């Protein structure tokens, strides 16, 4: 169906899901544009794009690395000057997963007018974007969360999807294979395929940047576009980067927010650990 090839993002805004520094340079004067820099406050204070607002990426998680309470998110996004009319541009230090976490979180809360910069802070030609150390306090807005459950997957929903729906693990191959783990158990969710989020970006000289969508399309071409694909990682950030790219390519994707930190610490849930199998355990 044609609709399955058109992302909800593209229906809500003419702005691409991933923009470059030239696009940002040309649009800096827009009154509806809000740049959200999710780097640590000390990094932000050392220099940031003029007019940018800082929301530290750790504030996009609760103490268990899940979505924070809605009242907390409503408060911090309102204080950042975001309302329904605001076009948000997210950027980070070039890790991309933190900007992607903000992107996914805003869309999950019913705000599809969000894009992310295809480079980290400072990874653009010198002088292209104005940089300052002066912080800006935006005018308070009213952000009203309207949760879109189609973008959010649960532990139960992921359990029921095993061997029935595509499940993608966005962690590195060492984590997927069970050689490393941030949880008490090692391995991955049964039937999950490994699509490390690092496939989505590359280093070119001194700059790290997102790969073009035309180059990324073959990475995901074996996956169906007519059914839901569940994404997970360690704590919902790496999966968010896969979400941004895959959604832009026309896939129906949702993020299991609890991810491996929840699944890998729950002994009642099944796992597949290739490393243990190789060791004969």
TrEMBL record:
Please report the stretch or stretches of sequence annotated as the Rhodanese domain: 29-133, 161-272
Task: Tell me the keywords, alphabetical order.
Answer: Repeat, Transferase
Q: InterPro entries, alphabetically?
A: Rhodanese-like_dom, Rhodanese-like_dom_sf, Thiosulfate_sulfurtransferase, Thiosulphate_STrfase_CS
Q: Name one Pfam family in it.
A: Rhodanese
Among Gene3D superfamilies, the record links this protein to: Rhodanese-like domain (3.40.250.10)
The domain of life for this entry's organism is Bacteria
Q: Tell me a Gene Ontology molecular-function term this record carries.
A: thiosulfate-cyanide sulfurtransferase activity
Protein name as catalogued: Sulfurtransferase
Please indicate if the UniProt record lists Transferase as a keyword.
yes
